[in-house]
Design a protein that fits this description.
The complex is a heterotrimer of chains A (about 250), B (about 250) and C (about 300). Chain B has about 250 residues and is mainly α. Chain B contains 11 helices and no strands. The chains are: A mainly alpha (about 250), B mainly alpha (about 250), C alpha/beta (about 300).
Chain lengths: ~250, ~250, ~300
């Protein structure tokens, strides 16, 4: 039977049986942790050792997770296994839901490990700094990564479903996250306001990682609070996924 | 000549180069249009403001085009046919790098002059034009920078052989890693001075503080900067040729 | 049983399948024959619900594919053996597919053994030969022990031994009462495998019936008759059959050789030769689909002479 349990098991086997997953997870973990360690080992006055700043490099892990989610989905179109999946699950939607749950779960766990890993490593490297998790903002910075990573994974699956080509989808998500959001700031006048509504900037606002990168940009005051920003980010990623599912369910496979 | 013709035919008989070229032009010229439109009428639109969209988005998309030109050959096994026809392999790969670089050069020139032209049309009173040597490098230099980036991407495509891996690595490095290295305290700045795309930026935009992303901190002169960038691409290409020669196809 | 009823599928301006109606019965191997580009793969995709028809229906055991509860347990299919992730092992490929329909891992081992891939089950598929990939595809189709099996060009890339193996497998599956629907663009291969035949060209049905009928109907092209008494034979055949005549050699169609011999005897014509012309099966198929080939090859110089 195509029960949820069975479909989740199938997607889990799929995801964990290729090397791409392990490569991506390794990079997604090592890159932010290594950068965090470097920051805190070498930090001068320009990076004060605060809980928020332990998460400065977590965006790298998030980007690699986005790559992972795109690969896990778009490569299925590339290799034809999506057609086999639809042969096995002709109504399609349950299979796609199972995929986003599995990829999202991996993202959540990765977010937890990156969030707490960066924080723990920073505390190890700078034992004198006060990095105790006290305020709600502190907890949001560290624990909140799991939510940001979860929705990042959802976005990756959604974009891949919409674009169906590994090369195309990777280019779009990487150019979007790494350049487009940042470059929009330079549009005279409206740029700064548009930037404040960019999804990954919203994610940064939620975990409190936006301050360091955007402080010099003299952004106007944030239009949303942290939780508002999370809701906004989540809504966009879920909308991408839903659009991807609708398109995929209707299209010839 | 023959090999160049072969590679040209291979490249243009698939659709992805056309898409990549179109997207590059649209992003570069489109972004220039947005900036020109958004600049208040009492402010001046600068030349470099019409150009930085090209260097930011354009290089990324052109590198995707170049990497795909190689990796799709591995995906569809046409690389074996190519190597059967050219057993020494290197001439075939060099021909591919040359063709892809030329295409990138042309895309870069059209994008840069298109962006400038549109800027001049939309802002006739802003005295936009190629007044200084740096202006020339900023506009006409985009083509060479695209071409060298394309060679780098071809080399990486040969080394990695998978579209996904090559694209992810290239884009993450180009778009994220250089920037990130820069913010490592103390040493980051010194490493960043010598990272290839930062150096390429020095050639394009010099060191003057202008509108747009921060200027390059490379200590090289613009001419040497271009030579350094090209040198790195050639080293990568040589390594790739060596590896391709030894490896089973 | 597979029942297609007036299936039509268009991709943009091209009509891939046009008002196609046919039936594949259970307990039989049905060959699905047509030149390349005739619409065979499209029809298979329509049967499996991968593409949606623009008009018409197709039912598998009386139900549209998309309404099947456990599709893999009803229909096993191999449309393209390259539908697999090259970095995944053959065993993992079958495991995820089995999991979707709740098929136990024990069955994965059974089908691996059935196609002879047990020893390479943990090898990544990119190291498989074309024949091994084909076997993996067949293993995947067998996972749910389905009543209906679809194979698109299953012998592609197989060695003669592998071809014989598939033929035998298809026969034994049909003998167990299953519906076996196999496409091919090669008639000789089909002639050894299929009991029933569906022939299409340019997306339209050209022939449906048994293989035996097809052979009987198309293989006898006429009878060659040689006689010194051409006038007597001409008179005797006139009105009875169509014939051509040159240098005392008649080629008669529409009458079998027994009847012609009798007519000649009654007319007092001595026969020096009376031989049925059996065109090859291949020739018959080519005749049938000649008008339906999408990209006909230019005639070779010998053929033109």
């Amino acid at each position: 039977m195509t029960t949820p349990t069975n479909l989740l098991r199938a997607e889990r086997i799929k995801l964990f049986s290729t090397r791409a997953l392990w490569w991506c997870l390794a990079i997604a973990l090592v890159a932010p942790l290594a950068f965090t360690a470097l920051f805190f080992a070498l930090a001068g006055p320009e990076i004060p050792p605060t809980v928020g700043n332990t998460q400065l490099a977590s965006g790298n892990g998030r980007t690699v997770l986005l790559v992972l989610a795109v690969l896990a989905t778009a490569s299925e179109f590339n290799w034809g296994t999506m057609r086999l999946t639809f042969q096995a699950v002709p109504s399609r939607v349950p299979a796609l839901l199972a995929k986003v749950v599995v990829v999202g779960a991996v993202g959540t766990v990765l977010g937890l490990v990156v969030g707490f890993g960066s924080w723990g490593l920073a505390a190890l490297v700078q034992p004198d700094a006060d990095l105790a998790l006290q305020s709600a903002a502190d907890w949001r910075s560290v624990l909140g990564q799991s939510l940001v990573f979860l929705f990042t994974a959802v976005a990756g699956v959604g974009v891949a479903l919409l674009l169906r080509s590994v090369a195309f989808a990777l280019t779009v998500v990487l150019v979007w996250t790494q350049v487009l959001e940042g470059v929009l700031v330079f549009i005279p006048g409206v740029g700064r306001h548009i930037y404040q509504w960019m999804p990954f900037h919203a994610a940064d606002e939620f975990v409190g990682a936006a301050g360091f990168a955007t402080g010099p940009l003299q952004l106007p005051s944030a239009p949303l609070g942290p939780w508002g920003y999370l809701g906004y980010f989540a809504a966009i990623t879920v909308a991408l996924f839903v659009a991807g599912v609708l398109v995929t369910a209707r299209r010839d496979a | 000549m023959n090999l160049l013709a072969v590679e040209r035919i291979k490249l243009f008989s698939t659709r992805s180069p056309w898409w990549c070229a179109l997207i590059t032009l649209a992003l570069t010229i489109g972004f220039a249009a947005i900036i020109a439109g958004a600049t208040p009428s009492d402010a001046q639109l600068t030349l470099s403001a019409t150009q930085f969209g090209g260097s930011q988005f354009g290089i990324a998309v052109v590198m995707v085009l170049a990497a795909l030109a190689v990796t799709t050959e591995y995906r569809f096994n046409t690389i074996r046919t190519t190597f059967q026809a050219v057993p020494h392999r290197s001439p075939a790969l060099i021909a591919k790098a040359v063709v892809v670089a030329l295409v990138a050069l042309v895309i870069g020139e059209i994008a840069a002059f298109g962006a400038l032209g549109l800027g001049m049309l939309m802002r006739p009173n802003d005295n936009l034009g190629l007044h200084t040597a740096q202006d020339w490098m900023n506009v006409a230099g985009l083509g060479p920078v695209f071409a060298i980036s394309a060679v780098l991407a071809v080399a990486l495509g040969v080394l990695i052989r998978h579209s996904a891996g090559a694209i992810a690595l290239l884009l993450i490095y180009y778009l994220a890693v250089e920037e990130l290295v820069q913010i490592i305290p103390k040493v980051g700045h010194h490493i960043h001075e010598w990272l290839p795309f930062n150096v390429a930026n020095k050639f394009l935009r010099g060191s003057a503080m202008v509108d747009g992303p921060a200027p390059s901190d490379s200590p090289l002169s613009p001419g040497w900067a271009l030579a350094y960038f090209a040198g790195i691409a050639i080293v990568f290409l040589l390594v790739a040729l060596g590896v391709a020669k030894k490896r089973d196809a | 049983m597979i029942e297609a009823n007036a299936l039509t599928k268009r991709y943009g301006a091209t009509t891939a399948v046009s008002e196609l109606t046919f039936t594949a019965r259970s307990g039989r191997v049905t060959g699905f024959l047509g030149p390349n580009g005739a619409g065979k793969s499209t029809t298979m995709r329509l049967i499996l619900g991968l593409d949606r028809p623009d008009a018409g229906t197709v039912l598998v055991d009386g139900v549209p594919y998309r309404q099947l509860k456990d599709p893999l347990r009803t229909v096993g299919a191999m449309l393209d053996a390259t539908w697999r992730h090259p970095g995944r092992s053959g065993r993992d490929h079958l495991r995820w597919l089995a999991a979707t329909n709740g098929i136990p891992d024990k069955r994965v081992e059974e089908v691996l053994a059935l196609v002879g891939l047990t020893s390479v089950g943990n090898t990544r598929v990119l190291q498989y030969s074309l024949g091994m990939q084909q076997r993996l595809g067949i293993a995947a189709a067998m996972l749910g022990d389905p009543r209906v099996l679809l194979f698109d060009e299953p012998v592609n890339g197989l060695d003669p031994e592998g071809m014989a193996w598939i033929r035998q497998l298809l026969h034994s599956l049909a003998a167990e009462g299953r519906t076996v629907f196999v496409s091919s663009h090669l008639l000789p291969e089909m002639a050894q495998t299929a009991q029933d035949l569906v022939v299409i060209g340019r997306g339209r049905l050209i022939y449906q019936g048994t293989m035996a009928d097809f052979v009987a109907r198309t293989s006898e092209h006429g009878v060659r008759v040689r006689t010194p008494h051409t006038d007597q034979l001409r008179t005797a055949l006139a009105g009875q059959a169509e014939f051509t005549e040159a240098d005392g050699v008649f080629v008669v169609s529409g009458l079998d050789s027994d009847r012609i011999g009798q007519l000649a005897f009654d007319a007092g014509a001595t026969l020096h030769e009376l031989s049925p012309i059996t065109g090859s099966l291949e020739q018959a198929y080519l005749d049938l689909t000649r008008d339906a080939v999408e990209f006909p090859a230019a005639p070779s110089p010998e053929a033109a002479q």
